[in-house]
Write a structure and sequence with these properties.
The complex is a heterodimer.
Chain A lengths: L3 E3 H15 L3 E5 L25 H5 L3 E3 L4 H13 L3 E8 L7 H8 L2 H4 L9 E6 L14 H5 L5 E3 L4 H13 L4 E6 L6 E3 L13 E4 L4 E5 L3 H14 L4 E5 L2 E3 L3 H11 L2 E4 L8 H12 L9 E3 L10 H7 L3 H12 L4
Parallel strand pairs in A: 2-3, 2-4, 4-5, 5-7, 6-7, 10-11, 10-13, 13-14
Antiparallel strand pairs in A: 1-8, 6-12, 9-11
Helix pairs in contact in A: 1-7, 3-4, 8-12, 9-10
Chain B lengths: L2 E7 L6 E2 L4 E6 L4 E5 L4 E6 L6 E3 L5 E4 L5 H14 L2 H8 L5 E5 L2 E8 L6 E4 L13 H4 L5 E4 L16 H14 L5 E6 L1 H12 L4 E7 L10 H9 L3 H9 L10 H11 L4 H12 L20 E6 L17 E6 L6 H4 L1 H20 L1
Classes of the chains: A alpha/beta, B alpha/beta.
Chain lengths: 337, 363
């Protein structure tokens, strides 16, 4: 079979190939170029977890370090995008994005509309999200619902190395601002990734598993939690269809509806806090457009509405796991009106 | 491929079977297929139940002589199940890995199965890859080395296709057989690969032991131009699926995974422009531009033409009225992917065609 890369290497390769292909592509972020020359290290750190390592030595000045002032460098990236570059800017943790909401919500997302299509802001903001790294409440959130809410932004939440590369290349070539969410616990995940460059179109969900009994719609790291649950349930004779949304904006409504119209039963699994998240959004969609197909109430599986706990024990309880997903599926599958 | 889902059993327990008889339906992540008996005897046990999922190389049933006592069958099953380790079996069953050779800056990807004998080369069609021979390759390679080549612009081969002419493709095949030191081969081509095979045979008659043309291009002007255009343009599952369904007499055979695998190929940089370049040469404006029908009579090697009766891409009428030296076999209830849809009959026809060629070739 094909070549295997980690999720992290797949992102690095997408960046390297786009930097090589298009001279307008530049990288910005904290420590993406920093650290070079220290302690005998010739290369840059490549960001806090080394995702962009190796790019500074290949592409030099096109990989730029920024000060720790998010609103300034995100604003600079938006300006550069509007002026003709294609910046990929790394904002370490999505939890820190709040300080530059005006730049993102009012500038990046609105320029194309405010100028009647005469200006575009083709930038990508890469950011880490998600719980499970014992990093507590300020470094563990899943804030993609906030960005999904804002018209003019595109939101990408990949779940595999293959998707990470293809969706990132698409994000860089896209003329709209894209927020690209990387779950920290997925960085070491291995998967087949073609060496050649490729794009995955936005708004095309992936059917991870096909089944006739219950649809599970999810995204990001939760795809793997749902896969594990689906494997357990298959042994019990319950066949789940697992739909990975890949992007939350645009949202592939057709694939969700197509699956629910077949199974009549829906569980939506979302690692984001439960109020106004992707689970509520997908549930509302199905409630409006596939109500007649439903054989059981829709079930949502999300963490409790509380900050991510620092305690290991509580954090493990907080994050949905295969057991909680399987329990929700069993309840849905066994529902009799 | 790691596992398959068992569909219906097509034969009753206790029935006599011959090699090639269809035993049961198997649903893989690629396509629905059927399992053929590999030995003759009595179907003594159905081990796999309908709708169960069985790992690759797992036990589906037992064929044995009527004389073998029941306890011996039971002991065999118990012993097999006790020793069976799916992961190891999968490693053994997953077979050879694709290889790549670089020829004058062009990388060509291929999959070889089998050893020795008079070797054979398989050429897929427009937009295809070596997986198109999934149900044929292993059977055809029982007594010989069989190379499934990926043409330039396709599969794992490099996406540069030059100006996309048939002679460039035939030359790529020639370079491939040179590089692998195959002085003489049985050559089989499907659809566009068929036209390329004819071109190769015309240019290199002494290197072509026999020619097998499967729903071949190049034998008439008609082709479903909307298929070609739709295939090139589709970037999403729901755009591509209706096109892929046209390839089969039974569109239900098309699985979501099959569509997804083709999309994975189509998403690669350079593929769309490669396909466009090729289509402009072979199928401009929805018609076939390369017509080699009249030249088949020049060929001195045995030629077999195989077609599916319900081909919706290249009509089966192209298999009619061919020169005297051409043998023709029409397989019923099959579409353009006749080698997938009627794999058992296809494999039998090609195996015996190649074997008769081996005998005459050696004299």
């Amino acid at each position: 079979m094909g070549r295997t890369l980690s999720f992290q290497q797949a992102i690095n390769e997408a960046l390297a190939q786009e930097l090589a292909r298009d001279p307008r592509v530049v990288l910005m972020g904290e420590d993406v170029a920093g650290g070079s020359g220290t302690d005998g290290e010739m290369d840059a750190w490549g960001g806090p977890l080394g995702v962009t390592k190796g790019l500074w030595s290949k592409f030099g000045d096109r990989v730029m370090d920024t000060p720790i002032s998010e609103s300034a460098f995100i604003g600079a990236a938006i300006g550069a995008a509007t002026a003709g570059l294609r910046p990929v800017v790394e904002l370490m943790f999505v939890d820190f994005m709040g300080v530059c909401f005006d730049q993102i919500f009012n500038q990046a997302a609105k320029l194309r509309y405010m100028f009647g299509g005469k200006a575009v802001s083709p930038l990508v903001i890469r950011t880490m999200f998600g719980a499970g790294l014992r990093a507590a409440a300020q470094h563990s959130q899943c804030l993609y619902p906030i960005f999904t809410h804002v018209p003019g932004l595109k939101c990408v939440v990949p779940s595999t190395p293959y998707d990470a590369k293809g969706l990132l290349v698409q994000a860089i070539r896209d003329d709209d601002p894209v927020v690209f969410f990387e779950h920290k616990l997925l960085y070491s995940m291995q998967g087949e990734v073609p060496e050649d460059s490729y794009t995955i179109p936005f708004g095309e969900a992936n059917f991870v598993r096909e089944g006739d009994d219950v649809t599970i719609v999810t995204l990001g790291r939760m795809v793997h939690v749902a896969s594990q649950a689906a494997a357990e349930l298959a042994a019990e004779g319950v066949e789940c269809e697992l739909v990975d949304l890949r992007t939350t904006s645009p949202l592939d409504e057709d694939s969700v509806l197509e699956s629910v119209e077949k199974t009549g039963r829906l569980v939506v699994l979302d690692e984001a806090s439960p109020r106004c998240n992707i689970a509520t959004d997908v549930s509302a969609l199905v409630g409006q457009k596939a109500f007649g197909s439903l054989k059981a109430p829709i079930r949502m599986v999300s963490p409790p509405h509380t900050p991510v706990p620092f305690s290991d024990v509580l954090e493990d309880l907080y994050i949905p796991n295969a057991g909680t997903v399987a329990a929700a599926v069993r309840e849905t599958a066994g529902y009799k009106a | 491929m790691k596992e398959g889902k068992v569909g219906r059993w097509l034969i009753d327990q206790g029935a006599q079977v011959q090699p090639g008889d269809e035993l049961l339906e198997i649903e893989t992540d690629k396509i629905l297929g059927s399992l053929e008996a590999s030995a003759s005897g009595v179907l003594r046990r159905k081990v796999a139940t309908e709708h169960s999922v069985v790992p690759v190389a797992g036990l589906l049933g037992v064929i044995a002589d009527a004389a073998v006592p029941d306890p011996e069958i039971d002991a065999f099953i118990a012993d097999f199940q006790a020793r069976f380790v799916p992961e190891e079996a999968e490693r053994e069953a997953s077979g050879p890995t694709p290889e790549t050779i670089d020829i004058e800056g062009q990388s060509l990807c291929y999959l070889r199965r089998g050893e020795g004998g008079q070797p054979a080369v398989l050429l897929h069609g427009f937009g295809g890859d070596f997986n198109n021979w999934l149900f044929n390759h292993e059977v055809l390679a029982a007594h010989r080395a069989v190379y499934a080549l990926e043409l330039p612009g396709h599969g794992g081969s490099s996406k540069r296709v030059g100006s996309g002419t048939i002679s460039e493709f035939a030359m790529a095949v020639a370079r491939f057989v040179d590089a692998l030191d195959l002085p003489r081969v049985h050559l089989a081509g499907h659809s566009m690969g068929g036209a390329i095979a004819i071109q190769f045979a015309l240019t290199h008659p002494r290197r072509t032991a026999s020619l097998t043309l499967v729903a071949s291009a190049g034998l008439g002007p008609d082709i479903d131009g909307e298929y070609i255009e739709g295939f090139i343009r589709a970037s999403r599952r729901n755009e591509l699926r209706p096109q892929i369904e046209k390839l089969f007499a039974d569109p239900k055979l098309v699985s979501r995974q099959m569509v997804e695998d083709i999309l994975k190929y189509k998403r690669l940089d350079g593929v769309e422009s490669a396909l466009r370049t090729i289509a402009n040469r072979f199928f401009p404006e929805g018609r076939q531009a390369i017509l080699l029908r009249d030249r088949l009579g020049e060929l001195s090697m045995p030629v077999l033409v195989i077609w599916g009766s319900n081909d919706r891409i290249v009509t089966v009428s192209h298999a009619q009225g061919l020169p005297q030296n051409v043998m023709t076999q029409i397989l019923p209830e099959s579409g353009h992917m006749v080698h997938m849809e009627a794999a058992a009959q296809f494999n039998r026809a090609v195996t015996s065609f190649w074997e008769s060629g081996d005998l005459s070739g050696s004299s």
